[in-house]
Amino acid sequence: xxxxxxxxxxxxxxxxxxxxxxxxxxxxxxxxxxxxxxxxxxxxxxxxxxxxxxxxxxxxxxxxxxxxxxxxxxxxxxxxxxxxxxxxxxxxxxxxxxxxxxxxxxxxxxxxxxxxxxxxxxxxxxxxxxxxxxxxxxxxxxxxxxxxxxxxxxxxxxxxxxxxxxxxxxxxxxxx
Length: 176
Prior knowledge:
By secondary structure, the chain is an alpha+beta fold. The chain has a single domain, classed as FomD-like (FomD barrel-like fold). The protein contains three helices and eleven strands, in the order βββββββββββααα. It has helices at 121-130, 135-154, 163-175; strands spanning 9-15, 21-33, 37-42, 46-49, 54-56, 61-66, 71-78, 81-89, 93-94, 99-110, 116-119. Strand 10 and strand 11 (116-119) form a beta hairpin. The model has no long low-confidence stretch (mean pLDDT 97). The active site is at residue 23.
């Protein structure tokens, strides 16, 4: 698998289990790209939904993707702190067109005080039935949701103290 290079701008494509394109983030600046981890940043980037609607992100964000974990993490930098939006998803792949993953609906929103809420469990159950997720996939996703929650509680990876700030500073060097 090829990896994106630091300083490169790429698109991020989110799909559903049935192969349908779900969402595209138009521009994300790569800050780190290895075989296992991709860290990117964007600010006021255009997002295209599957139905063609578009919107613009409101704040700078640091995006964390891993090739072995079934989740990705977006740290949104707001005036009152960092808010995280975590997607339970397939590990990412990168194919020179875009960074791609399958979104499995379960999400975790984490507040600056590190409290969190699990979102979209009903949507997950509906899609699990409609798209016939195999039992083994359901177990993988639930195990990774638990792993993600442990990271949040332990302040590990992107949830650690200065992670978002340090990567945001690196992003700003590319903009100057």
